[in-house]
Amino acid sequence: MNVNKRDAIKALSAKRDDCRRRSNTTKRFVNELEVARSRLIVRRDELDRFDLVSIEAIDAEIEAVTVKMNNLKQEVRDCAVEEAQLEQTMIRLKIDGFLPRLVRA
User: What is the pTM of this model?
Assistant: First the structure.
């Protein structure tokens, strides 16, 4: 395998690892948001049902957290797709590097 392909594989590997780190960090943040959302729901349920102003405010917070969570979950899915594409490209480069050796043998 020539140096350019090795360098390309190393670069792709670094991008893949970075993507995994971002994905893991995002997953942790999603988990924290899910906990916060659950706490907001509990707090809303504990409110007097006639305290509509507080209930509406908490509902708005819950909605904002839910939107943020969904956006982050989409980021995790996008990262997984990117990671798979990087992995496929790395495999192709490795195969391309080994095929000439097999042909010569």
Answer: 0.70
